[in-house]
Every structure is written in C-alpha cells, then in structure tokens.
Design brief:
Elements (H helix, E strand, L loop, with lengths): L26 H6 L5 H19 L15 H14 L2 H20 L5 H8 L17 H12 L4 H15 L4 H6 L5 E2 L4 E5 L5 E4 L3 H14 L23 H14 L7 H14 L4 H8 L4 H6 L5 H9 L9
Antiparallel strand pairs: 1-2, 2-3
C-alpha cells in the first residue's frame, strides 16, 4: 500500500492473523457479491484491499483479513491512519466500504447488531470547503476536440468519441465503460446509460457528439459487445471492454497533446453541467441529464462563478424613476 508520496504505508496497525471462513461466509467476498456492476465491484474490491493492507502493514489481503474481529478501537485506528495517508474523498470512500463490510459481518451472523452499530459509528473525514476539480473553458474544449478528431487511427477515433461523450453528455467514466453497442441509437440520437445504483437514463448526443460516435462505430464494426473496446492491429475491435483507468489516461494523453492544463474525466462532466446552467437550462433538467439523485449534487458541479450571480441579482433591479 502506498501513501500520497508513493511510500509504503508502514507497520501493521493491528495484531491480526489471516482467516479462512470459506467463500460462502467470507465477509469480503459476500460483500462484493452485492454489487451488480463490474465497475462498482472493482472499486469496492480495490478499496477493501487498501483497508486490509493499511491495517495489516501490507501483510494480509482483503479476502483473508479478519473483518469480523475488528473492534471499535481498531476501526478508529484505521480511520486515523487512512486520514493520514489519503485525501478526504479517498478516506471517506474507504470508511463507507468499511461500514458496508461490517454490516455484511452482521448479516453473516459473525457479529451481533450491537457490535455492528458500535463498529460502524465512525465519523467521515471533513473535506475542504473549496470545490474540487475544474471546468474547461470553451476554447480549451475546442482545442481538445480539434486535436483528437484529427487522429486517423482506430485508437484516436475511439478516444475522440469518448471525449465527446464525457463532455457532450456528461457521462461518468464508469458509465462510458459499461456502455454496449446496443445502447446506442444513432438514428434516434439516444443513448441508454446505466448509472449509479443501477438507475438507467437516456442521454441525447448533440450533432457533433453523434458524428464522433458514428465515426467510431464505423471503425469498430457492428459486432455485439462493449461500445468502447481496445482497437487491435489485426482487427478493428477486440471484445475486451475499455477500463476506467484507460479513460483517465486518454484524457491525460489528449490534454497534453492539445497543450492544456491537466484535467480528469470528471472535469468534463463538471463542464457539461456548468455549460448547460450557463446557457439557461432548467436545473431540474440538468439534474436528470447528469443522472444525479439530488439537485444539491448538481449544484456542487456549478462553476459559473460570481459573474452569473451578479447577472441574476441584476434581474431584480427596480426602476425608481430617478433621472
């Protein structure tokens, strides 16, 4: 396990030994089975591994970690170490997964309800009030897409379609990776997206986004399977689904090629929300397009700044009759 500086996490926090309860009673494996989406399972698997490594000093893997033996004092120690090693968002993700695996221990009758409540009673790590991420300016987006669309290889054509979707439809990178070819209707200009919690919604690619998708589908071929996969030298497309890490890396690669400041896939999603609000779209409509469960979440993506507030306040200017 590595910390923010890439150094090993150090000695074990807890004096624990590996346990083998069998697959059907293994808290980590049973907890993972609760998640339908492969992307969610991968995130939780990786997070459980992170917690187990931090707690055991890198000695015990998640599947062998004795989750049911954790007491409240152990959970507090793990929280403190995670807060020392990781940013608040990453730390809070770990704590959420830890609460989940503790509940699974209770469901497996490895602990009672009193112990479940006691061990789950851990506070989130307070995050900075500063907004995370950034929004790309229109000039940056134009430059990015100009460079990406100029590529003629299968990889470049695929990447340009992904970048167009991340901004043009505000998709999460996990949503991009889970898309099937059958989810896309170029004729109807609709895309079926499976978001968080298995909630499905429709996205509506603009003309430019649809053109980028059309170009990729022609390069990919009509074979069923993932919409975005890894181009190969021998054939237009392999059945292997593109990974979330690959989406992150392609943003980094094309951003560098366009001479832009670093940005993430989620920054393109923030840009999608901010631009729609800037252009006067109804916030509830933007919420639905972004797939947010709460309008409050959509508000956290709004980066229009003080100028939009000043403009809005000016709408209530009164005519006092003064010359």
């Amino acid at each position: 396990m590595r910390d923010k500086q890439g150094k090993p996490s150090g000695c074990a926090l807890l004096d624990v030994a590996p346990h083998n309860l069998g697959d059907d009673r293994n808290p980590a494996l049973v907890h993972l089975a609760n998640f339908d989406r492969a992307a969610s399972r991968n995130t939780v698997r990786w997070t459980l591994e992170r917690i187990a490594r931090v707690a055991s000093g890198g000695q015990i893997h998640a599947n062998e970690f004795p989750w049911h033996e954790l007491g409240f004092e152990h959970v507090v120690a793990i929280r403190a170490k995670l807060a020392e090693l990781y940013e608040p968002a990453g730390c809070n993700l770990c704590l959420s997964v830890l609460r989940g695996v503790i509940r699974t221990c209770w469901r497996l009758e490895l602990i009672d309800s009193e112990e479940r409540d006691r061990r789950s009673d851990i506070r989130r790590v307070r995050e900075s009030s500063l907004l995370r991420g950034r929004v790309l300016e229109r000039e940056e987006l134009t430059k990015l897409m100009h460079v990406a669309l100029a590529g003629e290889t299968a990889t470049a054509i695929r990447d340009a379609a992904i970048l167009a979707l991340l901004y043009g439809c505000g998709l999460r990178r996990g949503e991009v990776c889970s898309l099937e070819l059958s989810d896309l209707s170029l004729r109807a200009a609709t895309l079926t997206v499976r978001g968080k919690g298995g909630r499905a919604r429709h996205a509506f690619p603009s003309e430019s986004t649809r053109a980028a998708l059309q170009r990729w589908v022609e390069a990919r071929g009509e074979m069923p399977g993932p919409l975005f996969c890894a181009p190969a030298a021998a054939s237009p497309c392999e059945p292997a689904r593109i990974s979330e890490r690959s989406v992150y890396e392609l943003c980094k690669r094309w951003g560098t090629a366009a001479g832009l400041e670093p940005f993430t896939p989620h920054d393109l999603r923030r840009s999608f929300v901010t631009e729609l609000l800037y252009r006067g779209a109804d916030p509830l409509t933007v919420q639905a397009l972004a797939g947010h469960a709460m309008l409050q979440t959509t508000g956290r993506y709004d980066r229009r700044g003080d100028e939009s507030l000043r403009t809005a306040a000016g709408l209530l200017d009164m005519d006092t009759g003064a010359s």
